[in-house]
């Protein structure tokens, strides 16, 4: 199956994950695509194909004869799409030989180059966009399609030398649970790459250290006419606490290696309110400092109110994979070489986020992240370049061969 057809087939599956679910995977519909991938692997002739009770699908592209002792490498992608926008009834639009101009998604919505200047890079490419009513699902079905097309290529061309290659597909990456039950030992690779990046040439082995902060604020509701000295307005406490955090450390004011506090939820009433933040920083010391800042703000507000009206729950989510990857420089140098062989200029940059690979690296599977060609993830402006997707495919093919040298 051609890469384009495979990708269009996969995005027809609604695989949206649900952060409020208590099951694993968080939605049954993810299992529909995961089961289909398992069957497709079997039909292509892959070996050691499994799907465990958590939905993880793994398979093997056997080593060519004489290459069995080479390092086992893996390629991993996630099947779920973001809870931020619907992934049902996706209607992809294909633009051949993109002319570099604004792209009408539907009669009411246009993707303007002035808003998305990176579109100029894709002039002449074949683009796949949404119709403006759903996300596309390139995050990460572009990666899934590229991995499966690579698998088909190697199975159809057994004369091309490579070691054993393991491929794996995970659920629930978008809600931070993608590798909660991933069996690294069963996967059996010494190194792996997640195919979950965006812009052409991205090679990422640094990501944020990440934590969540949830705050529960207990107020005291008194009639405003008699409130002096008695009322504790939980919403006002929330606002005051937020203003105590450094204004310059917000996502919209930071870039590159700069960390942030991101308020992602605020709700409630005078009587009771809830807040939620994500805390991010590439530097471990600055990450710990940020957690200390929010803890100190909570302590100060509680003292000011004269009681423990704010309860803070801090939880680390994942850590910077750099510490686990840099002892193996060949992970990066071979990826760079493979990109150049595919006609791609490598762009090494930190991820202002995280991937399954960040956690896998700390589980004993060093796992940098490679580009897929998808852009504007999680929303109606999502698109991908089929031209770049094919370069990602070629990069994987070259990379697998380089690991057999």
TrEMBL record:
Lineage: Bacteria, Pseudomonadati, Bacteroidota, Bacteroidia, Bacteroidales
CDD domains per record: M20_peptT
Cofactor binding, per record: Binds 2 Zn(2+) ions per subunit.
Top EC category: hydrolase
Keywords: Aminopeptidase, Cytoplasm, Hydrolase, Metal-binding, Metalloprotease, Protease, Zinc
Binding site for Zn(2+) 2: 139, 174, 378
UniProt name for this protein: Peptidase T
Originating organism: Porphyromonas gingivicanis
Main location (coarse class): cytoplasm
Catalytic residues of the enzyme: 80, 173
Reaction(s) catalysed by this chain's protein: Release of the N-terminal residue from a tripeptide
Domain of life from the UniProt record: Bacteria
Gene that produces this protein: pepT
Record domain Peptidase M20 dimerisation: where: 205-304
Subcellular location: Cytoplasm
Cited function: Cleaves the N-terminal amino acid of tripeptides.
The keyword Hydrolase appears for this protein: yes
